[in-house]
Amino acid sequence: MALELAEPGRDCPLCPRLKDFRDANRAALPDYFNAPVPCFGDAAAKLLIVGLAPGLHGANRTGRPFTGDYAGDLLFATLLKLGLAAGTYDERPDDGLTLVGCRIINSVRCVPPQNKPLPGEIATCNRFLKPEIVGSKARAMLALGAIAHQAALTALGEKKSAFKFAHGARHALQSGFVLVDSYHCSRYNTNTGVLTPEMFESAVAQAKAAAGL
């Protein structure tokens, strides 16, 4: 069966709650991107970084994954430190930052209320995640959080019970991918000490090595 196109339209109607929220944000925040956020990075990348969803005042504002919120501060600083990005991150899509050997893809393309997509929305948006993973040249992934971990497994048709999420875990999947897990680099996780910069760097470095970068 042919894979569906990887990019949703600007007015994607598939998730009614997310569409309504998007429409409300277009009225309240007309200068924001307010649309499904596209992936970021080379389509031929060896490492895929799977995130959750755009933040209201981050990617939903700027139109680039993780750009403009705290999670992006930690993510891009780490990628720059490990040679997986080049240039300068300045919280703008035109800051000149480029990714090196990696590509960022979100499990859900549209911003959800309270940053919490519903299970049905995650399942619906998997039709856009699946071709990004299955059709990629990558064989390694870094999942940022349990939802991204589960979404990646769904996209590959893997048995979820066989691969439990745990920070720093490395999973050799039946499909040939290596999946490395990290707690999400959110402000909440770092402020509460669930995730430290050192822990995050270790997980990213492990994923980089798995990708042969």
Question: How would you describe the overall organization of this protein?
Answer:
The chain is α/β, with parallel strands linked by helices. It has one domain: Uracil-DNA glycosylase-like domain (Uracil-DNA Glycosylase, subunit E). It is built from seven helices and eight strands, in the order αββααβββαβαββαα. The chain has a six-stranded mixed β-sheet, with helices on both faces. The chain has a two-stranded antiparallel ribbon with strand order 3-4. Strand 7 and strand 8 form a beta hairpin. The protein starts with 15 loop residues before the first helix and ends with a helix. The model has no long low-confidence stretch (mean pLDDT 96).
Whole-number mean pLDDT = 96
Uncertain stretches: none
Report the CATH superfamily: Uracil-DNA glycosylase-like domain
Total number of distinct structural domains: 1
Main sheet attributes: strand count, strand direction, barrel closure: 6 strands, mixed
Write the layout of secondary structure elements.
Layout: H1 16-28, E1 40-41, E2 47-51, H2 59-62, H3 70-81, E3 85-86, E4 98-99, E5 102-106, H4 119-134, E6 140-144, H5 146-156, E7 170-172, E8 178-182, H6 187-191, H7 197-210
Helix pairs in contact: 3-7, 4-5
